[in-house]
Design a protein that fits this description.
Radius of gyration: 21 Å
CATH class of the largest domain: Alpha Beta
CATH superfamily of the largest domain: NAD(P)-binding Rossmann-like Domain
Largest sheet: 6 strands, parallel
CATH topology of the largest domain: Rossmann fold
Length: about 290
């Protein structure tokens, strides 16, 4: 099923990019937008990310075959409660959140019978935020993780995965539990560490910061409230990841001994090799030929 009307709740970087990509790739599809900031909605319409501004969530979802939640994780419950009574049977709801256990649980509890939820996490975006950074090609060759559970409707799952593929994404599946555990290591902890590296610097040190430091801490430029919600929502996994990082730093601490210089070099080389492997894999995914 190709959606004829898409509703985007929250039209910032990701929501605006969903709208731009959908308008570019889904002929005849109407995109309706809603969000808390009128100025953002007006800008989204001006750049062609949405066709129409809805005054409230209930009007936004009316007649939509696909609803995409693009708000911060921390407001999912409020939005789901507001829109649930107005969703018609057969409507499919998905999201772009960076955590999955909580939204899957909320949707299962709050959405009415006959409305299908499929958790999604398009692993795209940047530390930039806002509709002015939305791009038609943001999702091109990026990975989208869908997170079905035992209650997920198979047809709705296929529809959502086809939607993300139409926007140019590769798709894989994880359970909500697996997703949150793995993303804590590969996404949530790195953001927190980048922020910690910035926080620990003196003013004198920051004046000397060069490209290497700025590259290593780029993601610390993200929205604090958005990342607060992610880190707290996935608190148990982030704490476990911090424990593993402490163990790795403890190993490094032991290797900072002149008598163990060769071991230190080997430790650093292994890290460099693993990063190079990940980079080669990413390049093959983007340019398979």
């Amino acid at each position: 099923m190709t959606p004829q009307r898409i509703c985007i709740i929250g039209v910032g970087l990701l929501g605006g990019s969903v709208g731009l990509a959908a308008k570019s790739r889904l002929a005849g599809c109407e995109v309706v937008g809603w969000g808390h900031r009128r100025s953002t909605l007006v800008r989204a319409r001006a750049i062609g990310a949405i066709d129409r501004i809805a005054p409230a969530p209930q009007q936004a979802v009316a007649g939509a075959s696909l609803v995409v939640l693009c708000t911060p994780v921390g407001v999912f419950e409020t939005v789901l409660r507001e829109m649930s009574p107005h969703l018609a049977p057969g409507t499919i709801v998905t999201d772009v959140g960076s955590t999955k256990r909580s939204v899957v649980e909320l949707a299962g509890r709050l959405l009415p019978a006959g409305v299908h939820f499929v958790g999604s996490h398009p692993v795209a975006g940047s530390e930039k935020r806002g509709i002015d950074f939305a791009r038609t090609d943001l999702f091109e060759n990026a990975l989208c993780i869908t997170t079905p559970d035992g209650r997920t409707d198979a047809r709705a799952l296929r529809t959502v995965e086809r939607f993300w593929r139409t926007l140019g994404m590769r798709v894989c599946r994880l359970s909500p539990v697996e997703h949150d555990m793995l993303l804590a290591d590969i996404s949530h902890l790195p953001h927190a560490v980048a922020a910690a590296l910035v926080a620990m610097q003196s003013e004198e040190g920051m004046k000397l910061a060069g490209k290497g430091f700025l590259d290593a801490t780029r993601i610390a430029g993200g929205d604090g409230r958005l990342w607060r919600d992610i880190l707290l929502d996935n608190r148990d996994n982030v704490l476990a990841a911090i424990g593993r990082l402490k163990a790795s730093l403890a190993e490094l601490e032991q290797l900072l001994d002149p008598a163990r210089g060769d071991e230190l070099a080997a430790w650093l080389d292994r890290a460099a090799q693993r990063r190079a492997q990940a980079l080669r894999r990413k390049l093959r995914e983007v340019s398979p030929d």
